[in-house]
Each structure stands twice: as C-alpha cells, then as structure tokens.
Specification:
10% strand, 2 helices, 2 strands, two-stranded antiparallel sheet
C-alpha cells in the first residue's frame, strides 16, 4: 500500500502558528510575550509577562 502525501490533513492546513499574535515587552524583565486568550478583555492593561514579574515591579 502506497503512502499518501506528507501526513497533513485538511483540518491542520487552515491553522496558523503563534506568529500572528500581538506581542508586548515586559515592563520588569524586558522579554517579549505574546497575547493570551485569558487577556482578551484586558490586553491594553497587561504590562508584565508573568505573575512573578508583576510582583517584583515596584509600585
């Protein structure tokens, strides 16, 4: 029996990687971080890449 193609299915052909997501730079560590679904409603207010960086930032 012969193989068909490279193993990709029609379902996976339409999916995109994470390269299309918006990116910000963390105010504490300076590392870039990408948008997350849980930040959908507050993306404009997000300043830190993680809870750890948020706690370390001086008020």
């Amino acid at each position: 029996m012969a193989r068909r193609g490279s193993g990709h299915t029609a379902k996976s052909a339409g999916k995109r990687g994470k390269g299309h997501l918006p990116v910000k730079t963390c105010a504490q560590c300076g590392r870039p971080f990408a948008w997350r679904k849980k930040w959908k409603a507050v993306w404009d207010e997000v300043r830190f890449c993680s809870e750890r960086c948020r706690r370390r930032f001086p008020d």
